[in-house]
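One thing: can you check what follows?
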Amino acid sequence: MSEARRQVEELRERFLAAVQAAADSESLERVRVEALGRRGRVTELAKGVGRLPPEQRREVGQAVNALKRELEAAIRARREVLAREALERRLREERLDVTLPPRERPEGRLHPVSHVLDEIVAIFADMGFAVAEGPDVEDDFHNFTALNIPPAHPARQMQDTFFLETTDAQGEPYLLRTHTSPVQIRTMEAGRPPFRIIAPGRVYRRDYDMTHTPMFHQVEGLLIDRRTHMGHLKGCLVDFVRAFFERDDIPVRFRPSYFPFTEPSAEMDVGCRRSQGQLVVGAGDDWLEVLGCGMVHPKVLEMVGLDPDVWQGFAFGLGVDRFAMLKYGIPDLRTFFEADLRWLRHYGFLPLDVPTTFAGLSR
């Protein structure tokens, strides 16, 4: 074997081993430059073929060309292997295991007032009542006068009202509504009888203790037609409280009372018992007042342009917050508005637990 051919074999073994030993693309590039660069060992050997004796040129030239092709193929294959290994290493290092459990987050809950409102609406919707709404800022006429509460009427002293600085066209100050009864007036003004509505919403009075807050929630109902009487009112409300508390054995009684917008007027009591500091609605030796009601006063009908000799009906009003306290054992009304997440997790409801009369109200 000639000296030139021996050099080719030595370079072949050396550089093929160096290519396989390259740990990364940088070291592989150094091997390529050393072997096949402009001044590389294999390149210099190829340049020297022309100085060999004529009988060796063909053999050595073919061997050098074969070595160049073999090294190029080996370098290309090694480069692919290194790129694949680098990708796999990056995927391992940057891997995000989506199968791991997520971090615990607070679970959203519906406020008891929102849920109880939905319960009340569901019950009365089954009775054919539609929901009506009105503004929180009212004028004196709709909040008082149209409800048979003229200026200096004693009933105005029962409601410590939030008055605003702005006034209406008659010079009377606007106010935050003290009840949702103005919605009844606006409904009757805007449409034609018969009417069958409930009016849920916020109301405002200057009061604050365990059972009163400056802002609270009411639902008032109104039914106007030609034949309604007190018996219909009693049947409607008895069915309501038994459906709401989900008990058929709740004793109910009606006591004469006074409201300026109804005549006759009554307060509705439900049976209850008190034991160990708790109040339980149902059969017992005590009574608890839960709402006020009565037949719509003829003067209220006249205020909205209805003839009381033709039309009559009943109205009722209840406190949503109070009903929530009674049903779910919440002792202090002020906690409803303290935005305490621990309280809400305890008394709140899951968003998808929509109350219905056929599947249950307080699931």
Q: What stands out?
A: The longest strand covers residues 262-275. The chain has two domains: 3-93, 112-347. The mean pLDDT is 86.
